[in-house]
Amino acid sequence: MNIPQELKYTKDHEWVKIEGDVATIGVTDFAQGELGDIVYVEVETLGETLEREEVFGTVEAVKTVSDLFLPLAGEILEFNDSLENTPEKVNSDPYGAGWMIKLKISDQSQVSDLLSPEEYEDIIGS
Predict the structure, then answer these.
(1) How far is residue 107's CA from residue 30's CA, in Å, rounded to a whole number?
(2) Each residue of 13-71: pLDDT tens digit?
(3) CB of 99 within 8 A of CB of 57?
(4) Residue ranges of domains in the chain, CATH in brackets
(5) 95 — alpha (psi -120 to 50), left (phi > 0) or beta?
(6) pLDDT for position 1
(7) Measuring CA to CA, which residue among 23, 5, 35, 10 is closest to residue 124?
(8) With contact defined as beta carbons under 8 Å apart, do 58 and 66 qualify?
(9) pLDDT for 126
């Protein structure tokens, strides 16, 4: 199981890369494996400011549709629109080309609530 050490994680199987006041967010290798072949990623919240734990989009796999929950409060700055034509990037490169959104963090104190790689490993039992 691939769990990059430089990232933060959530119990909802999302990863977060913090760069100043911008967070890049995607789903973990574990999550994409559980979902199976991803056929569609939808994010209709571009430009909106949402609270932590609000749904910012959905990911559709062959067998299921799952909501995507915001790990931090903030404004959705960017959607990885290459996923519109090639959603399978989430399966093949979840921590790179398969990123989903960039968020302008509105409350930096929430960053400390994210999980370390070790804490996330404990949750998934790898």
Answers:
(1) 27
(2) 999 999 999 999 999 999 999 999 999 999 999 999 999 999 999 999 998 999 999 99
(3) no
(4) 8-110 (2.40.50.100)
(5) alpha
(6) 75
(7) 10
(8) yes
(9) 65
